[in-house]
Write a structure and sequence with these properties.
The complex is a heterodimer of chains A (114) and B (111). Chain A is mostly beta strands. Chain A is built from no helices and eleven strands. The chains are: A mainly beta (114), B mainly beta (111). The interface between A and B is medium-sized, with 24 and 23 residues.
């Protein structure tokens, strides 16, 4: 019954490694997002996809590459991980049409880079 | 540029009212939101207000919007310990539902 799910919930890895985080939504929404929340709880949008097309790409290092195999999934691949990538990454989704455009958030993936 | 600002901390006694304030810069924002984040969890939409409204009430929650001053507030009546969380103000920008979040206000409720 989970609306927006993310895997893994926790990820601990060494600097320089490559890792992926997965997101799936079963709400039938057209648009999905990745947000980064740093240790001070600042939450900032990274990417957005609408029907598998990239529509928002904020100033994010190109080590981060989102991929949307279908509109229910949005994955985030990170190359050459750095200490500053440590954060909680949230996936969210929203229907294209709706009364208030509420974004539904996943539970987050806590990434720790050592 | 876009910017949403909130005070970082608020401490209230159980049973009192809490008021969390937020200022935003984008006057074209159509929707403004309040999200709640409990420890270790994702964000949950609490309430929202459309830009042509001044006030919205939903049970213990009252949202006030002053468009002239670009000021948004969230009042929680009869605050309970379960209300302890971080509250994020957000404005919707542009046509792709891009949300700009404030830094979050950490609400602590004490007996």
């Amino acid at each position: 019954d989970t609306a927006v799910s993310q895997t893994p919930k926790y990820l601990v890895t060494q600097m320089g490694n490559d890792k992926s985080i997965k997101c799936e939504q079963n709400l039938g929404h057209d648009t999905m997002y990745w947000y980064k929340q740093d240790s001070k709880k600042f939450l900032k949008i990274m990417f957005s996809y609408n029907n598998k097309e990239l529509i928002i790409n904020e100033t994010v290092p190109n080590r981060f590459s989102p991929k949307s195999p279908d509109k229910a999934h949005l994955n985030l691949h990170i190359n050459s991980l750095e200490l500053g990538d440590s954060a909680v990454y949230f996936c969210a989704s929203v229907p294209t049409s709706g009364s208030n455009n509420e974004q539904f958030f996943g539970p987050g993936t806590r990434l720790t880079v050592l | 540029g876009e910017d949403v600002e909130q005070s970082l901390f608020l401490s209230v006694r159980e049973g009192d009212s809490s008021v969390i304030n937020c200022t935003y810069t984008d006057s074209s924002s159509t929707y403004l939101y309040w999200y709640k984040q409990e420890p270790g969890a994702g964000l949950q939409l609490l309430t929202y207000i459309f830009s042509n409204m001044d006030m919205k009430q939903d049970q213990r929650l009252t949202v006030l919007l002053n468009k002239k001053d670009k000021h948004l507030s969230l009042r929680i009546a009869d605050t309970q310990t379960g209300d302890s969380a971080i509250y994020f103000c957000a404005e919707r920008e542009g046509g792709y539902n891009k949300l700009i979040f404030g830094a979050g206000t950490r609400l602590a409720v004490h007996p």
